[in-house]
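New to this. Explain these tokens.
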Amino acid sequence: MKKERFLLSVLAAMTVLASCGRNAEISGETVPLSESADEAADLSSATMNENGGLLEDGRQAFGKALWDVYFQGILPDGGAVEYVDRESAEGNSFAVTDIDGDGREELLLLWSGASMSGMVQIIYGYEDGHFHEELSGFPDQTFYENGTVEIGWSHNQGLSNSLWPYFVYAYDTGSDTYRSVGGADAWEKSVREEDYSGNSFSAETDTDGDGMVYFILPADWDGQYEGIQTVDGEEYEEWRNSWLDGAAKMDISFQKLTEENIAALGYPKPDYPDPQPLG
């Protein structure tokens, strides 16, 4: 059950990504977050202006949040990204756009300048002075105009070289978040004639004879393949189109996480102290 054990580790890693952790990595060491992170969590993602009032302007709130990430690696909910210093922070990116089509702009934080386990892309909504997380996952995210998102796995040690496995999320207007609706993986006979449990490739399922079948993963998938629906290419495309419905991919313009780009959002640069050396 080698593949199933590996996939359970993938699912566990994605859970860690979703939570974003409570420690920051600085200069190769993991240290507890500063008190400011705990205070941010206590505020339940409330974003205050310089006079102690709630920030009503979304772009300014995004700017303030990005300053916190840039200078300290702290997220709006008080969690943290894998952080080293300001110079390395500039290797990451962000975008401000209405990604879910609800008429309000969201903040997309792309944190790719980290170890594989520390890479994450997060979508934040902002309303009534508070942030809320709409979606978090590995940065291999493809957005479609109808609110569907495909998130590729961080690793693939599966049975196909042609299809990179992925999960699918759909935007839910009621909660203003994305909900899991399943995923897909595949098996190519040319890669392995037997799966990791010793089961032979299903020629009966492969009705078009191209040597490839697909696994349709449910929304609550636990990493096990036993009993998972296996289909051929035509059924796979029907399943995929049931979510995409012909929607086009969205082109998102990301900007580097630099002081100049953050300042352009309108929130003044805070007076953060210079980081102190460890030890």
The helical segments are 2-19, 35-42, 58-72, 86-89, 233-244, 259-263. DSSP finds six helices and 13 strands in the chain.
